[in-house]
């Protein structure tokens, strides 16, 4: 322990700090959802520093305090107190001094905590552990089939194991850090002083727990065709409840916002929604969308409400410093100053650093209109007509001078910086601002426009004018025109063009007007009339329209209706068919007045001739006119068919001539005959002025009522429109029903040479390919109707005309013009929004860029995508939940509703939604949203990995613990064995030395000879690179090299005279005797080699085996030269010690004969460098004979 405390006053603050560390650790773990408690670090620290009692107190108290805020925690104070006491108890036993003991106490505390906590949780809470990780582990093992209580114990142990190991490891590392710090600070301080210096560092460590807490476009090309735009008025009956609209704006997401006295409405293209739950926008005067997409809503009595993504971000009112809650207009200059025009003046608002009022201009009362340009200029107009100018937030003098200074009621800046002003007398002033003032560009009036309220600037530099009497438009050349808007021509206040190019106008009395460009031009709207048109024909540059009330002649170029001799003549006469022949004569079929032929004479006057029953026609009611190849005109009517040539009736065909039904509806010249379609009698063929054939149901027709026969140049056949379907006759005369065509109530067909067919009927216009029809394919044919901009109804038995791809349709409201090659005007831009998803009845925000996550308990998911479509088109929508749906679902946008999914499986899905081009199915816009239904935590792969890894960690710890214990035992055993081996070696060395000294002691002159030979041998061996072990073996071998002399009699061994041959022979036998003695000594490897071969000579003249050169073992050669060297340098009984120089000469002389030359060189080098000093060695061995045993 670091504290053996004489400063008990430190215990109190440290106990408080330890308690805070525990609580913050627990909060930290909860916030980050860690698989730990992290509430024992402080407990273990104080237990280590101050003892087990303090540890128990902190462990007990932290659970009590945490339990005040979280249920099921206070009861675990028993666990906290117990492990705190144990930690302090074992800290006294130095368990935190080593990594092994630290980990061991951690495991022990984990097991104890598990036992106590499981008992508490089962007894008190039915097994609820109170930690998501532990609970999920418990469920994991229960799902795997483990018994309930085994799963409880396992779940508890998993969190206790990691937690306790983590906490004790923190203590272990902190102790190491403290000691390192203390050692560096002053290694010589006493323990008391050390604790004093350590305290600030520990306080810093504790403070870390406080610091590191979890913290939490379109392009507009406007022409003169505005009158062809399809107009739709939205008032209270269409969902705009108030029936009026003061202003309209579009936010960046494409949604339209309408300000009314009833409040703020949102429009998504299909429905209006009143923002009734926002009390600050109950009466809206004006709207403004800034560059960041914020919607500013100015109200009549509630100030300003600022929206971001439909959420109220700020409210600015009188309490915030606004001059008045009655806001009339809002603009923003280039410096980010927002000008709020109110009844009591102008307030400047800044959003920099928070919403605040920066300036007030109280002298400018009752502001009605303001505008800002991109150069920092702002202009405001008041009810009194006063004009005020601002520059970068500061009021400045008006740039209008002299006679030009007048009162104004409206003001707007164009994109190019021109200033448009309107005066009370309805004059329009256009100024261009310069550094010196303003230059008047133009001043003019637009007839019929009174009370100008605003200007709107189109991208083609054209300008819309909104006034109290309607809407006007003028272009760059100032050519002005008032738009025809039916009855929507009162109090037009504001305008915008939406992202699809549609025009929107707001009226404070009439509501909203939408104008959508359409390829279907309703021509009669230009003349402000409606009529049922039976036939159309272009003649003399004019459009002739036959109606039930006579002839209407349109001058398309000048957009006006003409009256002339023909129209006057045919007034109130029902006209059924119009036809221009190859001689440029206009033929007119009527009901009741016969046939009229009109030609233009050389003077330009109309010549009109009437054909009737009186002139030979079969009656006066005719329906169709057809010019034949021979120049005759065929006319079909209720009572038969007549052929006219010139100004006379040439041939008449009635029932008497063979018609099954003389009421004829249509005519067609095909091949070599004229075919007549009847009202119930099928088709009659006239050839060579005779009825030669009848075709009816018996021949394959679906009905005998023939509405139309149309030649198809692509297939060279004829399509037959009957009362209940479509049939086809090939060039060979084969008739077949096209019964796979999806619609039966058809009127007519228009066939292009390229094979495209338009089928006109009561549903609208179907577009098909001739080959698909002929092959009778069962497919889905595109339908053009009101959802694609064609809002009129086609008239049965009518006769449209075609001129240069322009088809003039006969409709219930007049003639409608469409270009057959450019009819597909489907919008190529749509905004798709999916902001919210409803999960089990609760709305949640969804973001395309993020994964939308569903909880594992989710039962029902409802998606309601918003596709903002303000055009006349009704595109197809395709949606598909990848991962759930087997195939995509396609429907019209108008049919798209809420999309529901129930009981989705846990996995990742991708909701794909696309807008399709209805004609070819190509994708116009698409969006993907990733939706992930989460599995239970324990079912996820990463959690399974956590379970496996934690389990492996437990096994690793157990393996490490067991291995460590066993290794400790092994090391202890090895320690004893090593000590025993050392004793044995020492005993062997002592024995060997004793034997050597015994041998040497027999001869006074050879005293310490074996000792010196062993020293010389080791010196030489080291030069040869012998290892330490081999050197030791050689030393022992050298000590025993003369052990055989024990067997030599003293008389021979100590004889001073020269030995006799017999004696010398006995002396030489000591090598054999020595080897025999040593062969039983196994503690030294090959110990007998030194004794047996050390008298062998390099040239083979030695004894007793006569070995030579490398045959002699190296150890024996080393001992041999060392033995000879010592013999020459030592005193012998038969001579004195030889001089060293003589010895060296002898060594050199016998190199290669007696001695190994290499060993001689080594020995000489050892002598030369002083390693072998004979005198010192003799002195050393004499004084310390037992050294280095």
Automatic annotation (TrEMBL):
Q: Which residues form the HD domain?
A: 1006-1128
Which keywords does UniProt give here?
Answer: Membrane, Transmembrane, Transmembrane helix
Entry keyword annotation includes Ubl conjugation: no
Q: Which SMART domains match?
A: HDc
Q: Which residues cross the membrane?
A: 12-29, 36-58, 100-125, 157-175, 195-212, 942-963
Per its UniProt record, what CDD domains does this chain match?
HDc
Q: Does the keyword Transmembrane helix apply?
A: yes
Per the database entry, which stretches of residues form a coiled coil?
Answer: none
What domain of life does the UniProt record list for this protein's source?
Bacteria
**SUPFAM superfamilies in the record:** Calcium-dependent phosphotriesterase, HD-domain/PDEase-like
The molecule here is called HD domain-containing protein
